[in-house]
Amino acid sequence: MWANGLKWMFLIIGTMIGAGYASGRELWEFFGAESGLAILLFTILFTICCMVIMTISYTHKSRHYLPVLQLLMGKQLTKLYDFMIMLYLFSTTVIMLAGGGATLEVFQFPYWLGTVILGGFVVLLFVWDTKGVTAMNAILIPILIFCLVGVLIAFQSLQGFPIHLSLDEQSNWPSALTFTALNILPLVAVLAAIGDEMKHKGEIWIASIGSGLALGSVSFLYNESLLQVAGDIMLYEIPLFAILKHYPYYMVLIMTLLLWMAIYTTAAAGVFGLLSRMKDWIKGPAWLLALLLIAIMSPLTTFGFSNLIAILYPLYGVLNLYVFAAILLYPIFHHRSL
């Protein structure tokens, strides 16, 4: 039970910690000053959402997100959200491939080669089907969190740990709602795909509480560190580098590799969610379907996908709030079935 619970916990964290989170950009956009209460609320809301989604998928032994969506949204809205999730996963994975190419340019790799390398590693994972994804998360995510937390604690020690835990002036608490909501779609897509692999309800508690506490703690430490360099963040596309500016160059290289790992886990989670849905339409080995997806996505990385994302992400944010509310209300209206 514990082994499986931890495996799902790392899968959840791997889905959440993408390039946006690991770079600090996502946290800074949503949190910043007066956000202690917001991060606490995010921790609680995120834990509840994971618990509800995993309980539904465990109860119905789901293999993809469609049955879970139908229970949450009803049949009428499921078609819309089915399309939205696939579009979200597809577009996010394209961005991750592009980000993989851009990140490896630090190591003097051509952009196209960086994209091909990331895509190749994603396809390689699916030689072992879903076990490859969960095994990768079980190895990479602890390393990623350990490195990130290590850098943040080292930075805080240099600053004398100027962390304030006062709940006064916590006006930014609504950010907890939008930050949690914006991460709901990939969470539904990935957690609904493992329903038939869960063996015990205890796995749900371990994965939900463990991932919530881990992400909440890292988010708070990261946000507090970013507040110390708030004046420099506008000079950097990646806020993490504002923290690293006084560190040796090798630390920048290590953290660049860390960002690449975060991109890799998110790309793998995106393909994992898409494959779980595609299996109803297309039969074949998981790695071959993953190769087909990557081949379709790769050309799109050269077309400046940011314009499309500028339109899609606000739309996702609005639509996700409805899913978010449905997840929170599900235990109230269906408590007997949980």
TrEMBL record:
Transmembrane segments: 38-59, 80-103, 109-128, 135-155, 175-195, 204-222, 249-275, 287-305, 311-333
Keywords: Membrane, Transmembrane, Transmembrane helix
Regions annotated as coiled coil: none
InterPro entries xrefs: YkvI-like
Identification of the protein by name: Membrane protein YkvI
Taxonomic placement: Bacteria, Bacillati, Bacillota, Bacilli, Bacillales
